Automatic annotation (TrEMBL):
Protein name in UniProt: Nucleoside phosphorylase domain-containing protein
Organism the protein comes from: Exophiala sideris
Domain Nucleoside phosphorylase: 13-133
Entry superkingdom: Eukaryota
Extent of the signal sequence: none
A Pfam family reported for this protein in Swiss-Prot or TrEMBL: PNP_UDP_1
PANTHER family for this protein: AAA+ ATPASE DOMAIN-CONTAINING PROTEIN-RELATED, ATP/GTP-BINDING PROTEIN-RELATED
């Protein structure tokens, strides 16, 4: 199925947010199309410093925001700006890697490379950390209560066994695609999926001398960045996992549950287990809580470690790939509302019926009536007298230009135009393509209004001219409205309503 190119940024409903270049790299591999390849540029709002990639995944137009760094603060800044540039975002997926709890809901085993899909978030470091414990200021943030019914419904659907299985199959398929393009994302081998006893801390042990490690549960920076093998973590402290003997061992599973989100890194398995137990958390990550305040969001993250500071090679790349594959699997099943094409078409047919009613055409009220044909016949007959039909704002190319629209049907609205010497059709559009297609050589291009014309319209509609005493401010306002008549009328009406002086606060 081909997806129609969005008209502008307001047509994007799904946003993807990645903290690491590696995460974005994997996610881009599951795009079905990039709009820039087709010559479409969507830009961003003034003052937005985010960097975006726009494209298509499944049936969704998506915008991917690349974050400058990790953490909730950075995520909040990115999400806040994204909301301004893409004002109709209905769902933000925060995609990447996370730490996982070894056993999730109902003691379901979670292994490295599995993906966690958040049903709710707990901001676990919203408070202060005390020796031997952690005191949070707030309880569980019931994100489900704040997500739209549409998102809740989709999540509930996907958690049924039928869709869980479909998602698992699709993850495997999409993961193979990614791995073909990015060989570095291959499975690191089950022997590398190592879980240590939760009390066994990843730090320097004697005979290595380290002043920091071990004091007040501290782990030094060097140890945090060193892999277990170099650091010398004891293999006798490992726990056995049952998944390693199962036949579907290398096929990642998507787990639904509560995600812990914060800026504090989990330092030990015991710390992790305490937090997990208190709130039924099954994963830990660092961006979701930042995005949450700005956009309805779900975190989709691949497990690259067990949130206990122990480190092993290769899992970050693999987990970033499984998260990307899961994101696509999720979006493929995610049901969408009707495209604007469908609703525009419906609106148009409703309008034609209204026209038929005004013309008192017999049978027009009948639900089964072919309304368009009835109205066309009437307008084409000399009995209709002389008429002028105005189609305002015919900007939707897919609706008017005679090519397959997003549902794969050919647009037939053109065929409807009555062709007769006693009537005329005036169409206004901002799209040069629609204009050429509908009117051919009869296109009349309208230039922007002059500053004087714009000022005249504005002052004529303004009830109290004293509110526009500041001439320079009026000029700036009209300039900002790019002298568009409709915008000027709306601005003047707004001022009539609020009695604010120019410039009004919103400008
Ligand atoms: Zn150390
Ligand atoms: Zn270790």
């Amino acid at each position: 199925m081909t997806i129609r190119a969005p008209r502008d940024r307001s047509d994007f409903k799904v946003a993807l947010i990645c903290a690491l270049p590696l995460e974005a790299e994997c996610l881009q591999q599951v795009f079905d199309n990039f709009w820039e390849d087709d010559g479409h540029k969507y830009g961003k709002a003034v003052g937005d410093s985010n960097v975006y990639t726009t494209g298509v995944i499944g049936e969704h137009n998506v915008v991917l925001a690349h974050m400058p760094g990790m953490g909730t603060v950075s995520a909040a800044a990115v999400a806040g700006a994204l909301r301004v540039s893409f004002p109709n975002t209905k769902l933000a997926l925060v995609v990447g890697i996370c730490g996982g709890i070894p056993y999730g809901k109902n003691q379901e085993e979670i292994v490295l490379g599995d993906v966690i899909i958040s049903q709710a978030l707990v901001q676990y470091d919203f408070g202060r950390q005390y020796p031997g414990g952690f005191k949070r200021k707030t309880g569980v943030r019931d994100t489900l209560g704040r997500l739209s019914p549409e998102i809740q419904g989709n999540l509930a659907k996907l958690e049924t066994s039928r869709y869980k299985q479909r998602i698992r199959n699709n993850i495997a398929t999409f993961l193979q695609d990614i791995q073909r393009k990015l060989p570095g994302t291959n499975h690191p081998g089950l022997a590398n999926d190592v879980l240590y006893n939760s009390s066994y801390v990843h730090r320097h042990y004697p005979p290595t001398i380290c002043d920091e490690c071990g004091k007040d549960d501290e782990i030094c920076e060097v140890a945090l960045k060193t892999e277990c093998e170099q650091l010398g973590c004891e293999s006798s402290m490992r726990l056995t996992r049952t998944k390693s003997t199962s036949s579907t061992k290398e096929r990642p599973v998507a787990h639904f549950g509560i995600m812990g989100s914060g800026n504090t890194v989990m330092k030990s398995g015991q710390h992790r287990d305490r937090m997990a137990q208190a709130d039924e958390i099954i994963g830990f990550e660092m961006e979701g809580a930042g995005v949450w305040d700005y956009l309805p969001s779900i975190v989709v993250k691949g497990v690259c470690d067990y949130a206990d500071s122990h480190k092993r090679k290769g899992w970050q790349h693999y987990a970033a790939a499984t998260a990307a594959a899961c994101t696509k699997a999720l979006l493929v099943e995610w049901s969408v509302e009707d495209t604007p094409t469908g609703s525009d078409q419906l609106t148009f047919e409703k309008d034609v019926r209204e026209m038929g009613k005004k013309l008192e055409i017999p049978g027009i009220e009948d639900d089964q009536a072919d309304v368009k044909t009835l109205v066309k016949q009437r307008l084409s007959s000399s009995a209709a007298g002389r008429w002028l039909l105005i189609l305002d704002n015919a900007d939707d190319e897919a609706l008017w230009v005679n090519k397959a629209n997003s549902e794969g049907r050919r647009s037939t609205l053109m065929d409807w135009f009555p062709s007769t010497a006693h009537g005329a059709i005036l169409i206004t559009t901002r799209s040069r393509r629609v204009a050429s297609y509908l009117a051919g050589r009869e296109v009349i291009e309208l230039a922007a209004m002059s500053a004087d014309q714009a000022r005249n319209i504005f002052m004529n509609i303004l009830e109290n001219p004293e509110l526009a005493g500041d001439q320079a401010a009026v000029s700036t306002l009209l300039d900002k409205l790019t002298f568009l008549p409709l915008a000027i009328v709306q601005a003047a009406s707004y001022i009539n309503m609020t009695q604010e002086t120019v410039p009004p606060t919103w400008s």
